[in-house]
Design goal:
Layout: H1 3-48, H2 51-63, H3 65-80, H4 90-100
């Protein structure tokens, strides 16, 4: 193996390490952006939800995270558009959940 080959291998390895470092930095920035966004959403939710409603939303987040995220986004949009005049109570949150939950289909099986 000559000096040129070793230099080429070093150059390739250095490029690979630089790419990995750049990718890691992008992932770290994305993670930080998500954390900031989640913090802002949580702050808004704390301001607009009564404690019981916040607890209900936390329980939903445990069982159905995607659905809870959609509800959180809906509540934040309502708050930012000024359509919420007061804090959301547990009963109001239940009503919103009923509206956003897809209707279940009932099946009746009759045996003859």
């Amino acid at each position: 193996m000559g000096d040129d080959e070793i230099a080429e291998l070093r150059r390739r390895r250095m490029e690979q390490l630089q790419r990995q470092a750049a990718e890691q930095q992008l992932m770290d920035e994305e993670l930080e952006r998500r954390h900031r966004q989640d913090s802002q959403i949580n702050l808004i939710l704390m301001q607009i939800l009564e404690p019981e409603a916040k607890e209900r939303l936390s329980n939903i987040k445990i069982t159905r995270p995607d659905f809870a995220k959609a509800i959180e986004q809906q509540l934040v949009m309502l708050a930012q558009s000024g359509r919420l005049k007061q804090r959301v109570t547990d009963a109001q949150l239940k009503e919103l959940l009923k509206q956003l939950t897809p209707a279940k289909k009932d099946f009746n099986i009759r045996r003859v």
